[in-house]
Design a protein that fits this description.
Blueprint: H1 6-17, H2 23-33, H3 35-42, H4 57-96, H5 101-107, H6 120-145, H7 149-156, H8 163-169, H9 172-181, H10 184-193, H11 207-223, H12 240-250, H13 260-273, H14 278-298, H15 301-308, H16 312-322
Length: 323
């Protein structure tokens, strides 16, 4: 199979896509971003049939740079949130009983007990519980084989791997599944420790797992350099209870987590619950706004509004008011 040189790809963009692309600067930008990861990944919004009507390659560069900067901006906050949620969960469980996984499995990962034995709901919950155990043991096995020092320490001492070490090696999705299988009492206690109002919007203590699964999709896209500007990475659909909670506690309407601005709202909400300093939250909002304004100056208004939504500015203003 014969490929195309960068010059030939530039000609393709001109002839097939009607994009103005000329000169060494555009050639270097195309070479840097790549035709397939860059242009083909950023030529549409959400679905391949919703093409962005680019006229100039400068517009492609602007969207690509906006996406790259968004990933750079959010990544440390995602890591902070993941670590904090695991630590708060661990602290809650230790206060209740023990950091021993066998204890947790027998006494806390027992959401199945509220269902009639043998019923379809009982079987589903039991299947989930068994899956959590398998995920934990699989993670321990994998990390041991990868010479992970913490895991090898406990295995070589013939001691059970404690929950804090397990949380270190569990990915965010498996951690969310762990939360899902905890009994209602423990889930609500974790919500209390996060100051989440479960009485009004989270009566069964399920919002935390909703948050984790939503952030998991975002985190994976950021970590693997996927496209994020149009939220195409979203696999876990936001629940009504999460949307209701966010709108009630932020006083911002029409949150649907369908635009990247809503992910800013979600992160600010969580970080505020985790006790982040107001200065840091203002910096996050301000930087996001600067990036969006930079995009606005470089692409047609129609493209800008389809990416960020016509309520983007209002939501940013309201978000600043809750800090």
């Amino acid at each position: 199979m014969v490929g195309k040189t960068t010059e030939e790809l530039m000609q393709l963009l001109r002839d097939k896509h009607g994009i103005d692309i000329e000169g060494e600067h555009h050639q270097l930008e195309l070479l840097t971003m790549g035709y397939f990861h860059g242009f083909k990944g950023y030529r549409f919004i959400k679905t391949s049939d919703n093409r962005i009507p680019y006229k100039s390659f400068d517009e492609v560069i602007a969207v690509y740079q906006f996406d790259t900067n968004i990933k750079t901006l959010f990544y440390p906050y995602i890591m902070q949130i993941e670590t904090a949620l695991k630590n708060i969960t661990l602290d809650t469980i230790i206060r209740i009983g023990s950091a021993d996984f066998n204890y947790v499995y027998e006494n806390l990962l027992n959401d199945f007990e509220k269902h009639e034995p043998g019923s379809s709901s009982y079987k589903k919950k039991m299947k989930n519980r068994l899956a959590v155990r398998n995920k934990v043991y699989s993670a321990i096995s994998t990390q041991y084989q990868n010479d992970q020092a913490i895991i090898q320490h406990f295995v070589h001492q013939n001691k059970p791997v404690p929950l804090w070490a397990i949380f270190e090696i569990l990915n965010l999705g498996d951690f969310g599944f762990f939360i899902h299988c905890l009994n209602e009492s423990v889930r609500k206690e974790i919500s209390n420790n996060l100051s989440i109002d479960h009485e009004a919007h989270d009566r069964k203590g399920r919002v935390l797992e909703d948050i984790i699964f939503i952030i998991r999709d975002f985190r994976n896209a950021v970590a693997h350099n996927g496209v994020v500007f149009d939220v195409r990475y979203q696999n876990h659909q936001p629940t009504n209870r999460l949307i209701s909670l966010l709108e009630a506690e932020t006083s911002i309407n029409n949150i649907d987590l369908d635009k990247i601005t809503d992910y800013l709202i979600l992160h600010v909400y969580i970080l505020k619950k985790l006790g982040s300093h107001k200065r840091d939250l203002r910096k996050l909002i301000r930087t996001f706004f600067v990036l969006s304004e930079r995009l606005k100056r470089k692409v047609p208004e129609s493209i800008y509004e389809e990416i960020l939504g016509d309520e983007h500015i209002d939501k940013i203003g309201q978000l600043r008011n809750i800090i």
